[in-house]
Amino acid sequence: MSSAPLPVISNFIRTIIDADLASGKHRSIVTRFPPEPNGYLHVGHAKSICLNFGLAQDYQGKCNLRFDDTNPEKESEEYAQSIQDDVRWLGFQWDGEVRWASDYFEQLYQYAVELIQKGLAYVDDLTPEQMREYRGTLTRAGKNSPYRERSVAENLGLFARMRGGEFADGSRVLRAKIDMASGNINMRDPAIYRIRRVHHIRTGDKWCIYPMYDYTHCISDALEGITHSLCTLEFEDHRPLYDWVLDNITIPCHPRQYEFSRLELHYTITSKRKLLQLVNEKHVSGWDDPRMPTIQGMRRRGYTPEGIREFAKRIGISKSDNTVDMAVLESAIREDLEARAPRVMAIVNPLKVVITNFVAGQTESREAGFHPQHPEFGARLVPFNKDIWIEADDFSESPPAGWQRLTVGGEVRLRYSYIMRCDEVIKDAAGNVIELRCSIDAETLGKNPVGRKVKGVIHWLSCTHALPAEIRLYDRLFTVPEPDADKTIDFCTYLNPDSLVTTRGWVEACVKDAIPETRYQFERLGYFCTDRRDHRPGKPVFNRTVTLKDHWAKEQG
Ligand code: ATP
Ligand code: MG
Question: Which of 36, 259, 264, 508 is catalytic?
Fold first, then answer.
């Protein structure tokens, strides 16, 4: 795949918008992103954010951020704040102030009164169990509640008393009066208000009745003048209810709902409930653990907003299955980092090398550019010394066929420096290689040796100059593509035990002033980012964002 961003690719929603603008149905568009503040946003939400805000940008329309805060037990200010941070970090800005469904509670109440007055809503005293029983099934029609024919006056009185706090939680609900025999269960007199004495993050204890999601959502959309209300496919069967509510109240605007398929990402999970389980059971360090598919996790891992937006473009919008392999996300991130990350050297798994024919105490520095395609990124000096670190994996005493790295008696090029030969291996009592004695060919600085070819190039660091660093090697959180496919098996069974390996390594001294969230390519190793929480200049902590190549593809053949 090329690293140039894709041009705008059309999709069925754009086709609808184009037609609505062409016909004059709308002069401009208004979309919204409507999260419930009951958890942190994940990569699936990123798809929805990029769609809603992206359309508003492309069509010079507006996109609102509206919290669907109708479930006070699960909602918190912390979640609401993190969601706003995430949307901004992804590069989007909502129109005007943040909106809250709770801002409309009074209007929602008045519309419910209007439905009652029209004989289209009633207070029901059935218990939740009875109500389930009366609802029927996919194959069996429901039956009418004995309270369905209450008079308008009685319903108005009861609904006012529900609001007034006269009845116990769960003892009554307000239901829309639609059709208990409807083939669509959502239309079998759905509850639109319930009694619930829970403190609300915005309205406190003002209300003890709360409107239901389906009832709230369509009215909130209409009050905000949303033109295209975009949601995921599981709401397709709710659309008749969305339309029924708006058709039966006095409201000047009737937004249209369109559904697209949810993103399902292989090797991870996209369900807030399951992500919460990972946090609660401490399988990860928190919502922003760099292995989490949350926006906070991806950010801390080092993913870029540009890379995530590019991913959203590549996966597209449609009604067909949107199961995507993690490799698609990783390659979008990798390609973005390839263009923007300065290159430096780092050693993750150090092996000491002593250059026997180099003078102790002497330092020879060579200049190296930070990016081969971007001279404007500048350059730094890479110091060479008698004692250097190399990657332990770059040496093998009994290498496989075709080995181009270091072995006893063999030669490699040290990146930006000399050709070096390994003369001797030093081992500890247990037989582990603890040091190499090597010599350099002084004639090979910036030129090829005479009479022989040396193919391998390895990275290295001067022991005198390198900075110690904590390096966190992150990998996929799960070992199988669909950890939650089998409902009888706990998805945590498939956690990847090697999803985090922490090492003490070394990095080039030129990164010493890096602030948190600074990204680099560590040559030959991958892209790394200084940790948002734990990194301090002088005490560096790097997270591996993504390897240079897709090593999973290779393993799977
Ligand atoms: P979850 O199922 O993880 O709890 P949700 O749908 O309940 O997510 P909301 O806060 O209600 O979370 O979602 C806000 C918006 O994000 C909705 O419009 C929803 O359709 C969309 N969204 C959520 N998950 C995905 C996904 N996997 N792919 C695309 N859009 C999504
Ligand atoms: Mg939801």
Answer: 36
